[in-house]
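Fill-in record for Peptidase A24.
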Amino acid sequence: MSAVDSLFMWLAAVSFAAAGDALWVSRIRPALAPRFGWRNLDPDELIPAKAWIGALAVLAMFFVVVPFVGAAAGY
């Protein structure tokens, strides 16, 4: 695996993790918190919205744009 392939793999993994964390913090955790007695999260414990929007943009680029552009370019 080349260095660029490794970089793309890590970027995709981090992007999946950021998107999963956003889903956990915004939907799943608030629904489960009363049942398990979890405290509310402080604002400094959250990933900023700009970061996970950027992560979703990276995922869209890797899995939507790159396959079509790569196929059109002959790769």
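KEY FINDING: The mean pLDDT is 82.
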